[in-house]
Amino acid sequence: MPNTRRSIDSFGPGVVGLNPMFARPGEATELARFSIPDDESLPETAYQIVHDEVALDGNARLNLATFVGTWMDSHAEKLFAETFDKNLIDKDEYQATDVIETRCRTILADLWHAPEPRNAVGTSTIGSSEACMLGGLALKRRWQHARRSAGQSTDRPNLVMSSAVQVCWKKFCNYWDVEARTVPISEERRVLDGHDLRSYVDENTIGVVALLGVTYTGMYEPVEQIATALDDIQAATGWDIPIHVDGATGAFIAPFIQPDLVWDFRIGRVASINASGHKYGLVYPGLGWIVWRDQAALPDDLRFRVAYLGGDTPTVGLSFTRPGSHVLLQYYLFLRLGRDGFRRVQQATRDVAQYLSREIAAMPQFELWSDGSDIPVLTWHLRKGPSWNWNLYHLSDRLRMKGWKVPTYPMPEDLTDLTVQRIVVRNGLSRDLAGVFIADLHAEVAFLESLTVPITTLGQRPGFHH
Ligand SMILES: *Cc1c(COP(=O)(O)O)cnc(C)c1O
């Protein structure tokens, strides 16, 4: 796919020209674009400029690439409008919001089977990325404490994870000087499953990341099996290696539609779990969660107390000021949907994913890689064998012409020869709309199949896939 991103110069010269319809007498008709304009504009004018410019953004409804929620009901919007001025960190001023945040993470600790939900610790974050950084930091700090008290070196920590981790784990390792040890995925082992784990871990391993919902494919890693492998390693070596479950997507899916799957705090080795409130938590962008199993899992020296906003509450987090409204929206949804409502929403979403899987598997050009039976995400690739006059990047382009955004990307290291296409089904992609997509897919594949010579692959590059 050619690079479709606009450059910052693509809106023309360094000034914003005002449509004469909107210009008021005496008002400038050109405003500097890359420096702050010299003069004021009327609020109507400034509003119109920003409003018109963002109208060029894509149509979120047809974006099948992202996990992030883009729709909430009108009551949620009303609540948002009433509360977007609340600063979550100001726990003294906004005590009620603070109490609701605690309630939400206690609800999550309970949903994820913490032994004593009210004794679990955790926090909301700006997203799973921040939550993963905190989870990783707690693993690192616990390992450092244990090593130091045994008089051992803390020079070379490592973290073990699948090669198909979301980029936040590579960031964590890079930003906090931890070696990332990646276990490659392959045709036979599509997820990290504990196989051969012994050759990746050692006394410097701060933890293992298990993905409940692999970003690349939507598949669950078998957390219980990984824990058993670590039990065997502990029995043989004495190394007690904890697990952090990156449940960015699946931690809001599994408790509702796969309640018998054991992946959470029911497993003693699971120290912490994160999830994105703004993915299958169904809230607008800007909300993540992390919960530690108990007080001991989050070292005390990672908690801070600040007195300068009044009051004195311990906090953990990488950021400080954050909107409180998103947390209130999460609580609204817990009340509004309840366990059964969440189950029905997530089940409906997965039904659509499985419908799409069946339709795509039935097309002779494609082979499914994952079918949406874990989180509602499916991936497929071109059937191997025939030589095709087109590839999946061309198909992404064709679908884009009908408004659909369906990313094409190579699998991670050691499997980069395999290029896949992925659909993330979210609440809002109805069965009807999915039917329209399948009709469009058939039409575009038929067009590509009608070509008698190969199309150029010049300028193709992977689409967004995180
Ligand atoms: C999306 C995702 C993240 C990052 O989450 P944000 O909420 O976007 O910061 C981390 N891990 C996994 C598995 C994800 O799917």
UniProtKB/TrEMBL annotation:
Its cofactor is pyridoxal 5'-phosphate. It holds the Pfam family Pyridoxal_deC. The keyword Acetylation does not apply. One of its GO terms (molecular function) is glutamate decarboxylase activity. Its EC number is 4.1.1.15. GO terms for cellular component: cytosol. It catalyses: L-glutamate + H(+) = 4-aminobutanoate + CO2. The modification N6-(pyridoxal phosphate)lysine is found at K279. Keywords: Decarboxylase, Lyase, Pyridoxal phosphate. GO terms for biological process: L-glutamate catabolic process. It is an enzyme of class 4 (lyase). Belongs to the group II decarboxylase family. This is Glutamate decarboxylase.
